[in-house]
Specification:
This protein has about 425 residues and is of the alpha+beta class. It has 12 helices and 16 strands. β10 and β11 form a beta hairpin.
């Protein structure tokens, strides 16, 4: 039993060390092989300023509105990434709207032009005369040759998926496409006309892929081979699926928000949080003596853990989100209070410390669980049914509640268990 406690303690120390490194003010970047992660606090529009765009999708002809809205959001994410805007936040609102927040974005006209471009997948063939020059979708460099559109578009494509080629010994990944009845005939005509020539698959006016036609395809099923590994195949499949059902979207609202709150508000919020933490520490130590001091240490670790999670996800912090975090600090001690009160009752009943400790945690668990679950349900409702700042508040509060359960049930109990049967045991009984 004692060895298990020491193992848990060592795990807590390791987690604390990792959280401390992530929380380091210089915003560290970790790189392990191909994996690379930067850790920094992302500020929302109310703290950093920027632009908020609201788009409304025309889903009147859609057969699967939820899927089409999700596809449209994916395309918007690709376009936002192409802008080089860091810390952008995209979310759906209601049944047909997408809200795009671009913190720090100054060139709003360029952002609108790129984000609001026509969303459509088209198939193009090489032009014999005239035609248009296109860029590569991934590198944004000019693609060789000129191209002219065919009648085949994303409307006729049913799905695209990654599979494994059965024709080669190396089982290379391929992307298969399946067309509907109208697309089957159009694709057959295109392939018959362009045997030995490339046919370009174009999304948002850029070439996603330009495979060479090997033979006329009349089955309505096609495959793209010669891809450079699974990752490239998956990217191509994703791009094709994003263009399957063109969903028109129009900009219905645009708000340019100045950094009216900014660093000063963040500083004040942090000061408020520090004051709250100090007052909670004074309360816990005054009422629960040495066990209260242990709870304060656990609460300090709680703050480190939550901040590390915010930086790892990362959570886009707004002033409302900071408020949720500060509120969760106060809620984090609720479990400790319930547990300590139960421990006090067991000690007053004459039970030894180790027995009172275990009874206090086990018998208080139902109350701790129910109170936190009810709060999490409220957070879930707020997160699902609201948008913007209220949603950020719900997210940070929920993360805080979950971490508080860990620190109260695992961290505090482990520390108290380690101190039993030591010279500190008498201090633990003076609760």
């Amino acid at each position: 039993m004692r060895s298990r406690i020491w193992i848990t303690f060592a795990a807590i120390i390791l987690i604390t060390a990792i959280a401390g490194l992530i929380d380091w003010p210089t915003n560290p970047t970790w790189k392990i092989g191909k994996w690379e992660k930067s850790f920094k606090i992302q500020e929302g529009l109310d703290l950093k300023g920027g632009t908020q765009l609201t788009y409304q999708a025309d889903l009147s002809k859609s057969k699967n509105k939820a899927k089409d809205l999700t596809n449209l959001k994916s395309v918007f994410e690709e376009r936002v990434n192409s802008l080089g805007v860091s810390e952008a936040n995209l979310q759906t609102s209601g049944s047909d709207r997408i809200i795009i927040e671009l913190p720090g974005e100054k060139d709003i006209n360029e952002a609108k032009n790129k984000i609001g471009a026509t969303y459509e997948l088209t198939f193009m063939e090489g032009a014999t005369t005239g035609g248009q020059t296109l860029n590569d979708y991934y590198t944004d460099q000019p693609y060789p040759g000129t191209w002219t559109p065919t009648k085949l578009t994303g409307r006729e494509l049913k799905n695209a998926m990654v599979s494994i080629s059965q024709e080669t010994m190396s089982a290379d990944p391929i992307v298969t496409m399946q067309f509907n009845r109208e697309g089957k005939q159009l694709f057959a005509d295109i392939t018959k006309k362009n045997i030995g020539k490339p046919v370009a698959i174009v999304l948002d006016g850029k070439i996603v892929s330009a495979p060479k036609v090997e033979a006329e395809i009349t089955s309505g099923d096609a495959q793209i081979s010669g891809l450079n590994g699974q990752d490239e195949a998956q990217k191509l499949s994703n791009r094709l699926n994003e263009g399957i059902l063109p969903v028109p979207a129009k900009l219905i609202a645009q708000n340019t928000i100045g950094a009216t709150l900014g660093n000063e508000s963040v500083k004040k919020s942090l000061i408020a949080g520090a004051i709250g933490l100090i007052m909670i520490a004074i309360f816990m130590i005054s009422f629960y003596k040495f066990p209260g001091f242990i709870a304060v240490i656990a609460l300090t670790l709680y703050s480190l853990f939550v901040l590390a999670i915010f930086k790892y996800i990362p959570v886009t912090l707004t002033l409302a989100g900071i408020a949720g975090f500060i509120l969760s600090i106060g809620m984090a001690v609720d479990a400790n209070i319930l547990i300590f009160e139960r421990m006090k009752e067991e000690l007053h009943a004459g039970k030894p410390l180790n027995k009172a400790l275990e009874e206090g945690f086990s018998r208080a668990w139902n109350s701790v669980r129910d109170s936190n679950v009810s709060s999490l349900i409220t957070c879930f409702i707020l997160y699902v049914l609201t948008t913007g700042f209220v949603r950020g508040f719900a997210l940070t509060l929920a993360i805080g509640i979950l971490v508080s359960l860990f620190t109260a049930i695992t961290v505090t109990r482990t520390f108290l268990r380690l101190l039993t049967n030591t010279r500190f045991e008498k201090l633990l009984t003076k609760i």
